[in-house]
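Known limitations

Files may contain more than one protein. Parsers should not assume a single record per file. Below, a two-record file is shown to illustrate correct handling: read the sequence, read the token line, then continue until end of file.
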Amino acid sequence: MRKQTGRKKYRIKSRMRFTVFIVLTLLITATAATTILGFNNADGMTKQEYIQVQVESGDTLWSIADQYMPADMDRRESVYIISQTNETSASELYPGQTLKIPVEV
């Protein structure tokens, strides 16, 4: 008489289905893990470079954007990008302040 261990024995009927199942399971698990850990965002793919500009008397965000940002970019967008990058506004600008201006790479 054979002794029963209480374990079920499983048999793979189709190697192809089993392989597809394992591959899909691994892909879904890897995708979920990278999403949860934050490796899936595109921000990490590009490295933004900046130039530093010192504000002089009479400078405004508009004049700085006009001088250093791309000519084909809307000035309002340029001013917004500069103010967001430096966490400042036009009213907080003062001579001697250093601003980071994003450069296209």
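...continuing to the second record:
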Amino acid sequence: MNNILITKNNILAHEELLYSAMKNGNINVLDELLHDDLLFIVPSGDVITKKIDLDTYREGKLKIIELFPKTENLNIISDTAVVTVVMEIKGEYEGGKFEAKYRYIRFWKQFDDGVKVIGGSGIAID
């Protein structure tokens, strides 16, 4: 995934890699896709870092059973992409089952070692 240019098709492909890694709890792929200085606001309103996100998967706190993403918008601005997605997710968090619909915004940026998520936010929607 090194030296991939920011194009709509490449960002969509990276989004698919991200979804697959989330569903499978693939920490190695998540580690590669998320920037070390990532900041993300989760639906609870908490701000998490890459370490917190990876630890959530590593410790088995979050298990995604199904996810159904639908890309709404994708804008390329120089070396950065802004993506909005509506996603239905079924899973378990800290042992409790959940099923919800969320809207996410994610920011992907081109670096020498590839395209990485640098930030984003998610909110629950009806």
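Parsers that stop after the first record will miss the second one. For reference, the second record is described as follows. Residues 8-125 form a domain with the Nuclear Transport Factor 2; Chain: A, fold (CATH 3.10.450.50).
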